[in-house]
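Hello,

Following up on my earlier ticket. Below are the two sequence lines again, exactly as submitted.
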Amino acid sequence: MKEVIRVSDVVTRFGSNLVHDRVSLSVEEGEIYGLMGGSGSGKSTLLREIIMLMRPESGSIVVLGKELSNITYADAAWLRQQWGVLFQSGALYSSLTVAQNVGMKLREYTDLPDSVIEEIVHMKIRMVGLPEHAAELYPAELSGGMVKRASLARALAMDPRLLFLDEPTSGLDPIGAEAFDQLILKLRNMLGLTVIMVTHDLDSIWTIVDRFAVLGERKVIAEGRLDEVIETPHPIIRKFFWGARGRLRSAHGQ
Amino acid sequence: MGESKKEPQGTGEASPAARVRLEQAEGGWRLYCSGQWSAERLGGAVATLKKRVEELHDTTVHWDFSGVTQMDSAGMMLFLHYRERLEARHCRVEVSGQSREQRQLFELLRDFLPRQRPSKPRLGSRLLKPATDLGRATVHGWHDLLAFFAFLGENFFTLVRSLFHPLSIRFDAIAKNIQEAGVRALPIITLTSFLIGVVIAYQGAVQLQKFGANIFIVDMIGISVTRELAPLITAIVVAGRTGSSYTAQLGVMKITEEIDAMRVMGFDPQQFLVLPRIIALMIALPLMIFFADIVGIFGGMVVAHLHLNLSWTEFLHRLQNVVDVKHFWIGIVKGPFFAWLIATIGCFRGLQVSRDTESIGRYTTISVVNAIFLVIACDALFSVVFTELGI
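Thanks for your patience. The regenerated structure is below:
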């Protein structure tokens, strides 16, 4: 397996608040990788650093062979073509319809005729499990689950190699969350994506994540497959997996 | 698994862009494809296909993919689109040279192809569009008007109820809004009314000098500023400044569901947000008009002094003699009416904001335009009424 993302010794500070203290992890091609941790543990911040929305104070982040701290303009533009991002609240452009949201990158970055773009957009919309009439709706007219799906369709529009998901199942009901997890798994298998997801949904960790890292106390306290991480004696891990919610899961197995 | 397997690592610039070559072959045509058929590199292939495919009809086309290094779903859709176009022109399409990954991609996408093609509206309905638009706009305007009346009714009800329970009036909010809408606006009011006084005095001075009637500048400034200009200019500035901020404030509260939160906690938004704003502006605006009167007349005085050599004392002396106090009162009386219009429109439009961010901008614009129009219309009405009444 090839390494697609390598984070090493990243330090992040907001004012006097140290968020990451020499955080290191790596993501391999084709896997679903989870970033886990309690609220305020800096998962989303780390994700934002990987997708070039923020710069860490020190340390290096390498994505698809590009070192982000001294990346050239052209490489950054190329890198942004290689990934799709699903934001926590969807972040669909509210003045555009779902179809326009999904087709945005295709319209801007390719020379495809409008009719082909329209077909691709409709195909992606069906691929994420939205009804076809959703294409003409505005984001304000969608339910929470539909916003996530539309946003996923937008992230997938250009067939990215990397897919970043920021808490994809938050705000969904258990059935919707389960369906969304299965959708991500299916898309990964179909399209050969590498998926990096920030989550604190234990169900997602149990069912679809291949490997994950647990952030806590400003560091990565465990990284690996579920059976490896769960044996780590660290108190935070104990709380996570052997607390009331975790125990229920562990008792029933995967 | 993925079509991305074949892609060379690195920047992706290593493999050539997608190309299509059309050549005559036995029993028809051969479309030879090569390069990387991924979304951002399809430009060349699209150009060729667009140009050349239209020439083909009633023939057999061999579509050869053997030169394609990599293909993504955009590339596959491009192929599917043109295959359909060719078939519509009675061509037989034979596909060859597909790799295993490409065939898998095709299998994958086939399940998700749109069942019916997205269709354009028919010609008839397109021709009727101006008429349907007009109809829609009329109905929309009618609903808007009804909603406004409903808002007014609710507002009036809240007002009457507050009068019976004076303790429920939000005096803190009123004071805060007077501070925000009135006191903070004084610098801009000073500037605009001073300049208006200067402009009127200058224009008047040139004409009056011709007749040697310099002293009448006092009558002119005194009456026009107090009776018409100070109220109107102040109201327009306030409409732009405060009316828009009312709409934006309430609009954002609507989007962030703060207004819903207030409703469920039993805090009537009319009582907590709308009424204090309206009352505050109705108190503040007359005071601001009074202030604008002073500054405007002072502006005229400066010009009269510099340009017409009218001394300060002479100006003030004549001002007291010729300008009836009724002109001043007429100007002040307009204040609460203008304030009511501006604040009511501002709050009404703010509460109309829907869930998308764009509508804040739209309704803020509408609110300012409506308020300025209504202020001017109301002023015209006052002019007619007062003149007819001989005041």
